[in-house]
């Protein structure tokens, strides 16, 4: 039986990101992916939020995405735009880039690392014991792993086989989405009626002066709201019938590249870990696509889990470090479920709901409410509850321009290998972490600029910060080093 330290079921965006982080830290990781290659029939997710661009930047790969996508103000709540151009980040924008391109670029990155792929193979079951997990495949094969991570999407076989509950809310609306061609000339743009919101546009576009300009060639992307709620695999006939009901014609729709149905079902795994089985991405949370958050939080689940799993597999940290994965990431998706449910409610077409939406838009035009919600939707305002203390604690470390003995560098470059960093802003040599020296990079640095956090504003300058491989601050020094040994032990193992 083939053995790996970690087996990941599913090589979508979440599984690829997790595989990359584990491989960077030298863990023997394998991905089992049902699809024979990375090709994705439809375009699915539309892009990346600012924090996801930052976490890719922390791995040194953001440029690969930026050069193919379209920078734009994409953060929104219930289709009310939330401009983040005044946020203190190198990336005060989102990126328009279809999921098939995001997956291709991630897969190219992972291909350059040491990851085993079992493509065209499907996980069908699992059995855990005290030392590991047997993973059964549809073709009769078996893999053995110390840990199995289900990144196998909303219908996760791993979640079901592990017996993890998936409580939540049934759908109240459903939408058909497709990419196809028309013999006629469709009515391009957003169309609202008593059923809800519908839209037709070309797949390919450019952002010009902050506005979307669609190309006049290539397939169309069609999205229609269905009444009543429907389920199951849709057909071209379903889409044609829906278009006729809404537009009075199907514009001669034909040659579908992809037809799918999505709903506002909102469900979340009751636990992200059952002993040696973990869940991440859509396997752990599903919700309406409002706000474009699913892929983004899946990738960020992977970034949170990857370094913790690596330390546990290597015996650096006890297994309970993995409990912090659930503790930190479950509330993030719970909040996304809540905001997508609110957004779905606010896009109901009746006049009273429209009045509520317009009132909300008035409030979100004010600076503080906008910054608050923009921090949530962009991911830049995320705060893990790591206890009381300096405002940086549990928040993302900004990508500062630092002075070092070896010259100037951007902070994020220190995270490229997914290892922890302790920055000492005080006198050089003031901190000694000899027992952790092989695990944590300690660097004496200079920084005289402001300390500004998105959605929060200016915070006092610390004398030192301990930053986890996922870019979140685990400890803040304030002239004293009180609590540093404890923080190093909690996050990076006993001395
Ligand atoms: C219309 C639409 C628009 C969206 N827009 C956005 C957006 O703008 N922004 C955003 O962030 N998100 C968006 N999303 C959500 C986004 O597409 C998902 O959240 C994202 O794909 C989740 O990634 P994942 O890797 O967790 O799961 P998936 O992408 O579902 O990947 C799971 C992988 O596992 C494989 N797999 C499944 N079962 C098995 C098995 N048993 N064995 C082996 N392999 C298996 C699958 O082939 C797949 O490759 C949108 C979704 C839809 C439907």
How do the helices and strands line up, and which of them pair or pack?
Elements: E1 2-9, H1 13-24, E2 29-33, E3 47-48, H2 50-58, H3 62-66, E4 70-72, E5 76-77, E6 80-81, E7 94-96, H4 99-111, E8 115-119, E9 123-128, E10 133-137, E11 142-150, H5 157-161, E12 168-169, E13 174-182, E14 189-193, E15 196-202, E16 205-208, E17 211-214, E18 220-226, H6 236-247, E19 253-263, E20 266-268, E21 273-274, E22 277-279, E23 285-286, H7 294-313, H8 323-346, H9 351-364, H10 367-378, E24 401-404, E25 407-410, E26 421-424, E27 441-444, E28 452-453, E29 457-458, E30 464-467, E31 473-477, H11 484-492
Parallel strand pairs: 1-2, 1-11, 2-8, 11-22, 26-27
Antiparallel strand pairs: 3-7, 4-7, 5-6, 9-10, 10-11, 12-20, 13-18, 13-19, 14-15, 15-18, 16-17, 20-23, 21-22, 24-25, 26-30, 28-29, 30-31
Helix pairs in contact: 1-4, 1-7, 7-8
Global shape? globular
Bound molecule kinds, no repeats:
flavin-adenine dinucleotide
Structural class by sheet pairing and helices: alpha+beta
Multimeric state? single chain
Key structural traits:
eight-stranded mixed sheet, 28% strand, 3 domains, globular, Alpha-Beta Plaits, binds flavin-adenine dinucleotide, Glutaredoxin, five-stranded antiparallel sheet, 11 helices, 31 strands, alpha+beta, 495 residues, FAD/NAD(P)-binding domain
């Amino acid at each position: 039986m083939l053995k790996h330290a970690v087996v990941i079921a599913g090589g979508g965006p979440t599984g690829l990101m997790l595989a990359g982080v584990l491989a960077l830290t030298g863990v023997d990781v394998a991905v089992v992916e049902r699809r024979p290659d990375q090709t994705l029939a439809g375009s699915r997710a539309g892009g990346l939020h600012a924090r996801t661009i930052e976490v890719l930047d922390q791995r040194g790969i953001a440029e690969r995405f930026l050069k193919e996508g379209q920078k734009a103000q994409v953060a929104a709540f219930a289709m009310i735009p939330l401009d983040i151009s005044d946020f203190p980040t190198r990336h005060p924008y989102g990126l328009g880039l279809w999921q098939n391109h995001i997956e291709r670029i991630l897969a190219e990155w992972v291909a350059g690392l040491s990851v085993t792929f079992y493509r065209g193979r499907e996980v069908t079951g699992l059995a855990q014991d005290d030392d590991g997990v047997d993973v059964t495949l549809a073709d009769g094969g078996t893999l053995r792993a110390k840990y199995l991570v289900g990144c196998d999407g909303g219908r996760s076989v791993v979640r079901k086989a592990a017996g993890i509950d998936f409580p939540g809310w049934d759908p109240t609306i459903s939408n058909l989405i497709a990419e196809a061609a028309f013999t006629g000339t469709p009515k391009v743009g957003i169309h609202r009626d008593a059923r809800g919101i519908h839209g037709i546009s070309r797949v390919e576009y450019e952002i010009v002066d902050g506005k979307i300009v669609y190309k006049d060639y290539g397939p169309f992307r069609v999205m229609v709201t269905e009444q009543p709620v429907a389920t199951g695999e849709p057909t071209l006939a379903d889409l044609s019938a829906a278009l006729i009901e809404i537009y009075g014609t199907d514009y001669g729709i034909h040659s579908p590249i992809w037809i799918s149905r999505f709903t506002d079902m909102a469900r979340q795994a009751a636990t992200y870990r059952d002993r040696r089985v973990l869940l991440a991405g859509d396997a752990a949370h599903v919700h309406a696509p409002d706000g474009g958050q699913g892929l983004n939080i899946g990738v960020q689940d992977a970034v949170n889990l990857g370094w913790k799993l690596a330390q546990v597999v290597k015996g650096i940290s006890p297994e309970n470090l993995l409990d912090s994965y659930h503790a930190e990431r479950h509330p993030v998706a719970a909040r996304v479920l809540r905001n997508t449910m609110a957004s779905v409610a606010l896009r109901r077409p009746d006049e009273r709901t429209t009045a509520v939406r317009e009132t909300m838009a008035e409030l979100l035009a004010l600076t503080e409410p906008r910054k608050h919600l923009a921090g949530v939707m962009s991911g830049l305002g995320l705060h893990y509850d790591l206890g009381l203390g300096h405002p940086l604690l549990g928040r993302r470390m900004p990508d500062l321009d630092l002075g070092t003995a070896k010259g100037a560098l951007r902070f994020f470059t220190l995270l490229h290998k997914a290892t922890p960093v302790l920055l000492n802003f005080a006198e050089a040599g003031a901190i000694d972490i000899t027992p952790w020296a092989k695990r944590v990079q300690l660097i004496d640095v200079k920084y005289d600029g402001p300390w500004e956090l998105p959605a929060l504003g200016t915070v006092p300058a610390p004398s030192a910060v301990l930053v986890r491989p996922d870019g979140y601050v685990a400890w803040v020094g304030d002239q004293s080093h009180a609590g540093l040994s404890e923080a190093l032990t909690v996050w990076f193992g006993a001395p």
